[in-house]
Each structure stands twice: as structure tokens, then as C-alpha cells.
Amino acid sequence: MPSEFTGKHVTVAGLGVSGVPAAKVLHGLGARVTVVNDGDDERARTQAAELEALGVTVRLGDGDTLPEGTELIVTAPGWKPTKPLFTAAAEAGVPVWGDVELAWRLRGLDGRKPAPWLAVTGTNGKTTTVQMLASILKAAGLRTAAVGNIGVSLLDAVTGDTEYDVLAVELSSYQLHWAPSLRAHSAAVLNLAPDHLDWHGSMEAYAADKGRIYEGNRVACVYNVADGATEDLVRAADVEEGCRAVGFTLGTPGPSQLGVVEGLLVDRAFVEDRHKNAQELAEVADVNPPAPHNVANALAAAGLARAFGVPAAAVRDGLRAFTPDAHRIAHVADVDGVAYVDDSKATNTHATEASLAAYESIVWIAGGLAKGATFDELVTGAAKRLRGVVLIGADRALIREALARHAPEVPVVDLDRTDTGAMLQAVQEARRLARPGDTVLLAPACASMDMFTNYNQRGDAFAQAVRELGA
Predict the structure, then answer these.
(1) Rounded-to-integer distance, Cα 100 and Cα 28, Å
(2) Rounded to an integer, what distance in angstroms lies between the CA atom of residue 29 and that of residue 91?
(3) For residue 471, what pLDDT is reported?
(4) Strand 186-189 vs strand 117-121: parallel, antiparallel, or unpaired?
(5) What pLDDT score does 4 carry?
(6) Helix, strand, coil shares of the chain as percentages rounded to 5?
(7) Nearest Cα to 227, choosing from 202, 196, 193, 256?
(8) In terms of Cα–Cα distance, which of 100, 156, 144, 115 is closest to 301?
């Protein structure tokens, strides 16, 4: 393909999920590519060998020095803006893009009509919402894929052989920070809560990067009526003329909103005379699982799909066809009248708050790496629902102290161990506390790396422990 990148000196910052595809694409476009990477481990050396075989230069163990002659940096999204590499780039007048920015600029380079992007961000619920959206779009007969921060390369989607009608795009705050040119067809911010503040520097900077998703939207900016900060981002955005603000709510929707009425998901945004009319989209029971925060995800996905012109029946069919990923409020089993639910993906307090709100009487398994979080507000809101609590992990004392302050009557089992076998004991202790009709809920409100490789392994350990109960 003829390219503006031919002969251009481009530095790719970081290997991994985004860096390797970026280096390959840029090399294929004729750029002179140098990859810099902080790490020099076995995985990095394997990736480096693959790229060097193509003619790409790779420098391992030095991600801070700007290669001589660099005209553009394409960075992995997780690299902090304060890194010396970017300071040097700013001083030299070298622009910095993320892989999302590169993908956006490469759309249509091969002469094909670029697929519009329906984009989703938020502190929690992004992946589920994007997967729901893709399922709805497919039910409407559209060629689509769920891509982006979900773990599927946007670069592959825009430069590969498959032609799409529309893309369902998950974007993190990191990716949005490095994507100044992005202009989505429509976009949604699901919610905002403190997260990644060590990277962004402040809650204000974090919110501002999330809000970038609305810039230049053409049809709809979808926001959460229950989270005023998301509507504030819509108000601050510079959008195309005619672009509308569309809210979603778990209550009865007003005009230009989607919401819930008597067990139905309804649309009062994309209908004729929205002040008087509403369109039934689906039943709450069509959402899997129908927990409140997941119904909110479904409404956001429906809002984006409707903004793209998808008929109501496709919303229903797409939601019915959707199966959530593992470890997202997943029902594992019922044992002696007690439900056991794995929400290991609830790695922060905001996600755990939503998970706890889905059940009436809970034995809560929590703890891990707190990442600077505090738990007073979470415990205060959930106290009346707690039958008991089992604490695991390195920072469990922070949760125990919040429970002592705000729910002193709730029985607490504090497991003073951080080995992976602690999960079996945690489930056994939870069983002892639970009564028929209760839910034993793994919603840790913490990261997993003190005890497990990731939240997937933690959830698997929980599920295995539950299976041993019923054996």
C-alpha cells in the first residue's frame, strides 16, 4: 500500500499485545522501525527475534532513551506519559500516538470504505458491554467484531482481510490518552470511579481522558443517568452538529433515554415523537445475568446499537445470544440451598459495589491487593446485605478495619494466609456462615497478584473449591 510512513523513522514503545502488531504493520508500510522495551525477559527476547527476522530493530532493556532520528513514537497504552522517553520526544517535537491512534489513521488506507466505530469506555463493564454490542450488531446481520482493549488488536481489524460494516470498540483511559484524532460514530461512558490514578495523576485527568471518547461523535453520546460525571463529559465534548446526548437508566426513561419499565428494556431515544412514544427492546430476563449493573450494560449497548440504526428485534436477539466471559458474576453452583457466584473480575471497589447490590443476603469473600483503595463507603453501602465476610490476601486488614467501623455486627473470618490453597479454606468458611437462600459471593474489590497470577486463576480456584464442596 502506498503510505505516508514509507521511509519514516518510527519508534514503537513496548512489545506485547499492541507493540508487536504495530511494529509489523509499520514495517509493512515501509517505515524504518525501532522497537524499545523496558524488559529483557524470555518472552521479550522471543518477540524481538520474530521482529528482527523481518528487519525491525529491537532494543531490549532500554525504554527510556529516544532513538536518534525518530520522527514518530507509537506507544503501548500502559506506558506513563511521565516516562523519560516521552519527555525527550516533547523536547524534540516528536509526536506520540497510541496503537488506537495508529489504527484510526490507517482506516481506509487500502481503498476500502472505513468501518464506523461504536466506542465504549468506563471504569467497569467495558468488555461485557462491547461483547453485548457486537452480539446485537451480529443479530442485525451486520459484519462486526469486538476489538480494542478487549484483547483483540484494532490494527488487525483495520488492516486485515476481513471487511466490516461496523466495529464495537472497547477503549481504556490509557488508550484514549494517546488517541487525539479519534472520532467515533457514537460512544458511551458507562461510569466513572477512581482508578489508575497513579498513571493519570488525578481523578480530573483520568476523567478527562475518558471524556476524549465523545470528541467528534457524529450521532450519539451515550451516558449513565445515575452517574452525573458521565453527563458532564458529554456537556464538555466538542461533537458534530446534530449529535445527541442519550441517557440510560435503570428507572423509567425520559425522552432521549433508554430505561426499564415493568421488566422491559425500552427506548425513548430512537423513536418517533420520543416525548410520547417508547419502543420495547427486550425483557430484563433476556440479559445474562440480569443483575442491575449488567442490565445497565445492556442498555448502554442497546443505545449504541440503536444509534447505528439497529432494529429493536436485533437488540432482543443479540442479548439472548450473549454469553458473558468467565469470572464476571458467574453462577458456579448451588450447594445445600446456597448459591456460589464468581465475580473475581471485580478488582476494584466500584465493580464490587455493583456486584454486592445484585444479591439480598451475602457471605462475601474479599481481599487481595488494594491498589491504594479505601473500603469505608463500600462497606457502609453493603452492610445490611452481609450475612458474613471471609477475608483473604495481603491487604485484607483494610477491609477488616472498615467492617469494624461500619458493620461491627457482621461475623468476619480473617484468613492469615496468602497461598493459593487459601481459597479452599475461604469457601469452606463461607459455607459455615451461609444459610439456605444466601449467596456466597467472590467479589474481592482488590487485585489478585498477591496470591494468583491473575483474576482468572483466582476465579478458577474459587470454582474448584465450590465443586469440592458438592463432591
Answers:
(1) 18
(2) 27
(3) 64
(4) parallel
(5) 86
(6) 35, 20, 45
(7) 193
(8) 144
Tell me, what's the pLDDT at 373? 87
Count of H-run helices and E-run strands, the chain = 17, 20
Q: Which three cell numbers stand for residue 30?
A: 515501509
Q: Kindly list the strands in the beta sheet with 338-342, ordered across the sheet, starting from the edge strand earlier in the chain.
A: 330-335, 338-342, 439-442, 362-366, 386-391, 412-414
3-state secondary structure of 139: helix
Do residues 175 and 148 touch, judged by C-beta distance below 8 A? yes
Angle at 211 between CA 207 and CA 216, to 5 degrees: 165
Nearest to 265 by CA among 315, 220, 311, 224: 315
Please state, in angstroms and rounded to a whole number, the distance separating the CA atoms of residues 320 and 282. Answer: 9
- What ranges in 93-184 are assigned the alpha helix state H? 99-106, 126-139, 154-159, 173-177
Distance CA 145, CA 233 (A): 27
Show the CA angle centred on residue 365, arms to residues 360 and 366, nearest 5°. Answer: 115
Q: pTM for this structure? A: 0.86
Query: For the chain, which ranges sit under pLDDT 70?
Result: 1-2, 195-197, 200, 471
Hey, what's the cell of 412? 468476619
Distance, CA of 423 to CA of 219 (rounded, Å): 47
Give the strand pairing for 57-60 and 279-283: unpaired
pLDDT at position 31 is 96
Element holding 62 (H helix, E strand): none
What's the confidence (pLDDT) of residue 138?
Answer: 98
pLDDT for res 83: 94
Asked whether the bond before 289 is cis by omega within 30 degrees of 0, the reply is yes
